[in-house]
């Protein structure tokens, strides 16, 4: 059957079809939607819970926080990206303890450490320092020495808490830092042994159960000596890593009112002071 369209209409329809086809090809081509990997953060910029957010995500309702418990004390953890912290405000919000990032690997120290470490002490909080571990860059003992040389020490003043080994997902590459499960356990042992030999204290281990399971094979050998700081942004702590039947501290949210990361100490003021005193 002969078309009723004029030659001009036919040419216009063909031209429009060509334009739409070209546009569709452009939109669906790889060049139009290049595959991009998330940017690798700058070394030194890692902070406690960074890997937890990236790998465990933020469960629905997590920011509501855990149920209120009279026998648990509110705490915070801070790093350089938070700058000068209003410790008096946090003290007014019934925050009783704080940890500050001191070091990472053997090449980074927190430029805000003095304000963030001395500040809680001055308002009446117990305070401590943590080290973000990078097991692929140097030995555990070397990093423990670096931590101790840059704020990670301990003093028996009833207000200084033992140092923390922050061991979690690698924000710069392979989740387990390229180490086998047994090699990772050996690295952690090396750090903890050096820290205790120099301070007389067992360092706290901060980690997430899923990372600990994947990267250490759920090693159970530290539960009797090293306090556990569990990372889980939810209303319950969930399953703890092997070897620990209870947690000492719990990082439960990254969305606090005054500063992001908030935590609970599993005990009253007397138990917190006992941890500080040793």
From TrEMBL:
It catalyses: Hydrolysis of (1->4)-beta-linkages between N-acetylmuramic acid and N-acetyl-D-glucosamine residues in a peptidoglycan and between N-acetyl-D-glucosamine residues in chitodextrins. It comes from the Bacteria. GO terms for molecular function: lysozyme activity. It is found in: Secreted. Residues 1-31 form the signal peptide. It holds the Pfam family Glyco_hydro_25. One of its GO terms (biological process) is peptidoglycan catabolic process. Keywords: Antimicrobial, Bacteriolytic enzyme, Disulfide bond, Glycosidase, Hydrolase, Secreted, Signal. It is an enzyme of class 3 (hydrolase). Its EC number is 3.2.1.17. GO terms for cellular component: extracellular region. PROSITE patterns: GLYCOSYL_HYDROL_F25_2. Its main location: secreted. This enzyme has both lysozyme (acetylmuramidase) and diacetylmuramidase activities. PANTHER family: LYSOZYME. Belongs to the glycosyl hydrolase 25 family. This is lysozyme.
